[in-house]
Amino acid sequence: MIIPVPFAPNEVFSINGKKFLVLDYWRPVSWSQWSAWYLIEDEHGKNYEVPYFHILIQKERGNAKYVGTKI
């Protein structure tokens, strides 16, 4: 089963007007949609580790939108 990646590394997305750069995402050996994580960076250079499903749900709801490849 192929699970879609909401945003790839080096892509920028926005949620409620705030932009985030995707630095990386990873899947543990026991891969499932619910165990993957994203490393993202905000406009101020602060990094966050965010569960994959959170980004996917935000995109499906229309809250997370693709912006481009630069903040």
Descriptors:
single chain, 71 residues, mainly beta, 5-stranded antiparallel β-sheet, 13% helix, globular
Could you characterize what this model shows?
The chain has a five-stranded antiparallel β-sheet, covered by helices on one side. The radius of gyration is 12 Å and the shape is globular. The chain is 13% helix and 41% strand. It has one helix at residues 52-60, and strands at residues 12-15, 18-26, 37-42, 47-51, 64-68. The mean pLDDT is 84.
How would you summarize the topology of this molecule?
Elements: E1 12-15, E2 18-26, E3 37-42, E4 47-51, H1 52-60, E5 64-68
Antiparallel strand pairs: 1-2, 1-5, 2-3, 3-4
Structure, briefly:
With 71 residues, the chain is mainly β. 13% of the residues lie in helices and 41% in strands. The longest helix is centred in the last third of the chain and has 9 residues, at 52-60.
- The proportion of residues forming helix, as a percent range, comes to 10-25%
Roughly how many Å apart are the termini? 32 Å
- Mean pLDDT across the residues is 84
Strand arrangement, largest sheet? 4-3-2-1-5
Tell me how many strands there are. 5
Query: What is the helix/strand order?
Result: EEEEHE
- Tell me the strand percentage band: 35-45%
